[in-house]
């Protein structure tokens, strides 16, 4: 999963920066563009390693991953086929959250299909948390009016505090009402991540944009705290 996510991330950055003269690029896009040959080489090596690792994957999970990869490839094609029509593109922030959450839960629901319904609240909370992470980063990197963003992204970045508070409330509701440990623990982690993102937003003037972006990703590591006994 680490290899697949990194390859998708790097490929998306390379596609975003393939025509630097017509794009308003952030520092990460410029970095990928400057070192595109190296990134392409590592992506190729990662693809070879990924093919080998897939041989050891549960066949039931592999089928779901193939379906997810097909949907993701179609989405990337739609996003990058007409880069000048960025205001009409699909919201990348929402797609990232949904795809990442699906990838995380696929191995479990493939092995134990009966858990699909029970794990749905946890998967939805994780998707919302990952989407919130992307929205905060976009808001920090693109001050208003964000005319090039999808309309849903513009709306969401103008209501980040309300969305974060709602996510915390939903996560706490799941924590208090759902007795299943494998739903309650992810709910606790998502609530903590949302609180950290709101804290970073309040302190955003104390950090550079690059450091804010890194800290926003660190805020998603809250499940590690649940491993401490």
Task: Describe the structure in your own words.
With 229 residues, the chain is mainly alpha-helical. The chain has ten helices and no strands. The protein folds into two domains: 1-56, no CATH class; 59-227, no CATH class. It has helices spanning 2-16, 27-34, 36-54, 59-81, 92-111, 116-141, 151-157, 160-177, 181-202, 209-218. Helix 6 packs antiparallel against helix 8.
Number of strand elements: 0
Q: Structurally, how many domains make up the residues?
A: 2
Low-pLDDT stretches are none
Overall body shape: globular
Along the chain, the helix and strand elements come as: HHHHHHHHHH
Q: Which percent band covers the strand fraction? A: under 5%
Taking Cα atoms only, what radius of gyration do you get, to the nearest Å?
18 Å
Question: From the helix content, strand content and strand pairing, which structural class follows?
Answer: mainly alpha
Mean pLDDT over the residues: 87
Query: End-to-end distance, in Å?
Result: 26 Å
* Major sheet: none
Annotation field: number of helices: 10
| Amount of helix | over 70%
Question: Would you kindly provide a brief summary of this structure?
Answer:
The protein is mostly helical and 229 residues long. It has helices at 2-16, 27-34, 36-54, 59-81, 92-111, 116-141, 151-157, 160-177, 181-202, 209-218. It is 73% helix and 0% strand.
Topology:
Blueprint: H1 2-16, H2 27-34, H3 36-54, H4 59-81, H5 92-111, H6 116-141, H7 151-157, H8 160-177, H9 181-202, H10 209-218
Helix pairs in contact: 1-2, 1-3, 4-5, 5-6, 6-8, 6-9, 6-10, 8-9
